[in-house]
Design a protein that fits this description.
heterodimer; A: mainly alpha; MetI-like fold; 2 domains; B: mainly alpha; two-stranded antiparallel sheet; 6 strands; 63% helix; elongated
Chain lengths: 334, 417
């Protein structure tokens, strides 16, 4: 257990370091942008105002309110402090709505959509990968090229294709949104059903993409394992094939967990764009409106939330991995 | 070297990928030679003209020879084009609404149906339960049906310059035909036009070549950074390795997509050309190459031939270029291929978010996708605006990945079939 604790603390420290770094990036990069967003707001508000002292007063009031007239270091500490209080400032494009309010209404849609989809895709992909490696002839010939082609389709491409086939042509599912446009979020069967129906297409487009990539990786891993000595030995002993595949699956699975931890960032990125195609009310769509509205508090908050989500997912996977793989405990207690 | 190349080209996967990729590349090179039209020229007034051959109406009327063909099914075709099954049933619905008994309406009897229609249709009538768009639909339908059954020709009249009166200059009979080769102005748009009225095919070819360029620039930058960092970390080791690995691990967990968004946004719209976007993508995607190059170098570092080289007093640069690089060259090439394809995807994703290269100069695959999405081509059923783009993206990445898998099988015997 001591070895595991060291592993855990090591990973926790790493989580903190990356989080700090993510904060820094999120704070600095949008502020390097040319142009003054406060000036943009003021010019929008002060349309038709001819008095320049009045405009200056308005500008200064907003500069104080947004804190853009303070030195950059002070702004950073203010920012970090505020983020921990859950205060991301006010949105520029939907002024005076606070950013946290916008995030609260969109984050659960993204979490509810992406993580189940990625996990389901991962599981199905791995099973198909092992089967492809085990059966090889025939099955391998079909599954491999198909998953190779599917995984090469960008997530938004899959989203568009599913949208056109199932929503526009067959009209089985709605084309956009997270629930019917005539409903308000409430706890009723009608609303829940509407959410489920709207959920299907974005969900399956992410799942299908994840399946493709995972199946390919799992197939190569399993082929390595199938050639390992223990498999040959087990075959000599006359152990049933079904059982051997089970062993191979478990051994090939371990690297796949690390693979998932490393790929989750890319997957989330792709899935965010898929959300946009369906105008799903999650972070992806929020990000799009923020970019269109030149709304840097919102952009910075969305990217920060996404980064933190990915970091936590990563951390969780590594913790699970440490629990499953005995080699980690052994390596740490040396 | 020659032997390796031979081996690679024997792999069917690599060969398929190579052929697909080369055909795309050749099309982007040769198409502009045959069709020199500027790719972003707006030729259509209006958006999303369907694919097909467009014949100038004016030139067709005045083409030198008029041919008379007596085709028996011509008038039936003409009626069917205007009056399909849907229109017939719509007419029936209308007639029932204005009080014609349903059993008197026969949708297959064209003459009777049109007769009933002209008798009962009143564009000003207010039919309960009919929404405005339906009213407009019937008005349009009525207009298109006018003169459908007439068997006389049309008179062409021109305005007399002096008097302003119309004078007959020609007559088009229903059985007059033109040979399309004799019409002065004909333009084939194999993929129609996009939302701005530009020729999709010409635009797509240009977009493909720009996207490939973006992939190439980004891939080169990423591979170079990855190679240099990986070599330094792996070969020198120690503190250099620690620092490089710290940075690499940092950028592994922070999603590169987020970095891409933040940097592209910070660069600002004015400075975001295709090359700029490619550079940004290159600078955010070197992590994987660094990791794999480093682990390769570490396993090579203590091999006998490297030690021998060190003992012989060769310089660091010599050892790296002569004793290490040749051994990892295949990995680097494979990584480079993957970088190109993922850079093309990254550009497309960025463009959909509205952070792609500045518009109005060159198209890219991502921008074309973005335009199609903004103008809702997918919901309006204008497949030619987005499907060819998706297909090209998928084909490029597919061919690159096939090449990569093919090479992997050559260099990794365990994966061979």
């Amino acid at each position: 257990m001591k070895g595991y604790r060291r592993y855990f603390l090591n990973k926790l420290l790493w989580l903190l370091v990356t989080a700090v770094f993510a904060f820094l990036l999120n704070f600095t990069l949008p502020r390097l942008m040319p142009g003054d967003p406060v000036a943009a707001i003021v010019s929008r508000l002060a349309q038709g105002m001819s008095n320049s002292t009045g405009m200056k007063a308005v500008y200064e009031q907003y500069a104080t309110q947004f804190g853009t007239n303070k030195p950059i270091i002070e702004q950073f500490f203010l920012y970090v402090g505020n983020v921990f209080k859950g205060n991301f400032g006010s949105s520029f494009s939907q002024f005076p709505r606070p950013v946290i309010d916008i995030l609260k209404s969109s984050i659960w849609w993204t979490v509810g959509l992406q993580f189940p989809a990625i996990i389901v895709g991962w599981i199905i992909g791995n099973i198909l990968g092992v089967l492809a490696a085990y059966i090889r002839k025939g099955f391998d010939k079909v599954i491999m090229p198909v998953s190779l082609f599917i995984s090469n389709l960008p997530a938004f491409g899959m989203a568009v294709i599913l949208l056109v086939i199932f929503a526009v042509d067959l009209k089985w599912f709605p084309t956009s949104g997270g629930y019917g446009f005539d409903l308000i979020p409430e706890f009723s069967w009608r609303f829940i059903w509407s959410v489920i129906v709207h959920y299907q297409l974005p969900f399956w487009s992410i799942v299908l993409i994840a399946i493709g990539g995972q199946a390919i990786g799992m197939r190569s891993m399993s082929i390595y394992e199938l050639n390992a000595d223990y498999v040959k030995y087990a075959r000599f002993l006359g152990i049933k094939d079904r059982k051997i595949v089970g062993y191979v699956f478990r051994n090939a699975m371990l690297p796949q967990i690390t693979g998932l931890a490393l790929a989750i960032g890319t997957m989330v990125g792709g899935a965010l764009v898929a959300e946009i195609i369906f105008s799903y009310p999650g972070l992806g769509t929020t990000l799009l409106t923020a970019i269109q509205g030149q709304d840097y508090p919102l952009i910075s908050a969305v990217t920060l939330i996404i980064t933190v989500m990915v970091l936590i997912a990563n951390f969780t996977l590594e913790i699970i991995y440490g629990l499953i793989d005995p080699r980690i405990k052994a390596a740490q207690s040396d | 070297m020659k032997h390796t190349l031979q081996q690679i080209f024997h792999s069917s996967k690599f060969l398929t990928g190579f052929v697909i990729f080369m055909s795309i590349l050749l099309v982007t090179i040769f198409y502009p030679l045959f069709v020199p039209n500027p790719p972003l020229e707006i030729i259509a007034q209006g958006s999303f003209f369907p694919p097909g051959t467009y014949v100038s109406n004016y030139d067709a009327v005045f083409s030198s020879t008029a041919y008379t063909l007596n085709l028996p099914d011509a008038s039936a075709k003409r009626i069917a084009a205007k009056l399909g099954n849907k229109e017939r049933s719509d007419i029936k619905d209308y007639l029932i609404k204005v009080g014609v008994p349903a059993d008197q309406i026969d949708t297959t009897n064209t003459t009777q149906l049109l007769d009933q229609w002209t008798k009962n249709y009143d564009p000003k009538a207010n039919i309960p339960g009919m929404i405005f768009s339906q009213q407009r639909y019937y008005q349009r339908l009525d207009k298109s049906l006018a003169g459908l059954l007439s068997s006389e020709g049309l008179i062409i009249a021109a305005k007399n310059v002096d008097t302003g009166a119309l004078e007959q200059v020609g007559m088009i009979n229903q059985n007059d035909y033109v040979n399309i080769k004799e019409v002065a102005s004909v333009r084939t748009l194999p993929l129609g036009t996009d939302n701005f009225g530009r020729d999709v095919l010409t635009e797509l070819v240009k977009a493909t070549s720009v996207s490939l360029e973006i992939g190439l620039i980004a891939g080169t930058i990423a591979t170079l950074i990855g190679l240099i960092l990986g070599l330094l970390a792996g070969y020198i080791g120690g503190a250099v390795d620690d620092v490089i690995m710290f940075i690499t691990n940092l950028f592994t967990v922070i999603p590169s997509f987020v970095l891409l968004i933040l940097i592209s946004y910070s660069v600002g719209q004015e400075h975001r050309g295709a090359v700029m976007v490619a550079t940004v993508i290159g600078f955010t995607s070197w992590v994987w190459t660094t990791r794999s190059v480093r682990s390769q170098v570490i396993s090579l570092r203590n091999r006998d031939h490297v030690n021998l080289s060190k003992l012989s007093g060769h310089s660091l640069v010599y050892i790296i270029t002569h004793d290490i690089l040749p051994y990892i060259a295949s990995y680097v090439v494979m990584a480079f291929i993957l970088q190109i394809s993922s850079a093309i995807l990254a550009e497309a994703s960025l463009s959909i978010l509205g952070l792609g290269p500045k518009t109005s100069e060159v198209p890219t695959l991502g921008l074309m996708m973005n335009w199609a999405m903004i103008y809702q081509a997918q919901i309006l059923g204008k497949w030619w605006a987005y499907f060819p783009v998706l297909l090209v993206i998928a084909l490029i990445t597919f061919s690159m990945n096939l090449m990569n898998t093919g090479m992997d099988q050559v260099f990794n015997p365990a994966l061979r079939d």
